[in-house]
């Protein structure tokens, strides 16, 4: 469980924006936690998910990086095992993200629908872009004519 907690908090550990609190500066995880607490105090738990854009965009950047890593994994699966295996992995991954973002996190963390849509899009867009590129290269590349 500690490992999962670590991976969920990576954006907090590498938060690069210093926050000012009581005349001092906070950095990294302390700054992230201070900003999150300020957002929750200012807007409440649900409203902070809409109005705390700095944190939303920071976390979305890490979702995109994770999605890009999964797209690279899909590419390697496709090269090593074929397109069917890679497509099956992609479908299972998409189902997992959708289940996590639209079922688990709204129940466990009281996430709002907007945040679920935003997070799932950030996770899945790199994989969708990868498959779009694969299909484009397969069907839109001109066939070379054999010269006689």
Give a verbal description of the structure.
It is a single chain. The protein has about 150 residues and is mainly alpha-helical. The chain has two domains: about 1-45, no CATH class; about 55-148. Helix content is about 80%, strand content about 5%. It contains seven helices and two strands, in the order H-H-E-E-H-H-H-H-H. The chain has a two-stranded antiparallel sheet with strand order 1-2. Helix 5 packs parallel to helix 7 and helix 6 (about 85-110) runs antiparallel to helix 7.
List keywords for this structure.
148 residues; 2 domains; two-stranded antiparallel ribbon; 4% strand
Quick structural overview:
This protein is mostly helical. It has helices at residues 2-8, 10-13, 28-43, 45-51, 53-81, 83-109, 113-139, and strands at residues 19-21, 24-26. The longest helix has 29 residues, at 53-81.
Give a topology summary:
Blueprint: H1 2-8, H2 10-13, E1 19-21, E2 24-26, H3 28-43, H4 45-51, H5 53-81, H6 83-109, H7 113-139
Antiparallel strand pairs: 1-2
Helix pairs in contact: 3-4, 5-6, 5-7, 6-7
């Amino acid at each position: 469980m500690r490992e999962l907690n670590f991976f969920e908090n990576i954006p907090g550990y590498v938060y690069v924006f210093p926050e000012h609190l009581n005349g001092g500066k906070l950095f990294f995880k302390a700054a992230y936690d201070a900003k999150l607490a300020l957002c929750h105090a200012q807007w409440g738990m649900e409203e902070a998910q809409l109005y705390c854009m700095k944190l939303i965009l920071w976390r979305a950047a890490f979702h995109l990086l994770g999605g890009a890593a999964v797209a690279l994994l899909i590419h390697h699966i496709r090269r090593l095992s074929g397109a069917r295996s890679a497509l099956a992995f992609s479908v299972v991954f998409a189902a997992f993200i959708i289940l996590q973002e639209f079922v688990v996190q709204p129940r466990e963390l009281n996430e709002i629908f907007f945040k679920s849509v935003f997070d799932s899009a950030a996770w899945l867009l790199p994989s969708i872009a990868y498959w779009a590129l694969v299909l484009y290269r397969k069907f839109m590349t001109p066939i070379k004519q054999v010269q006689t």
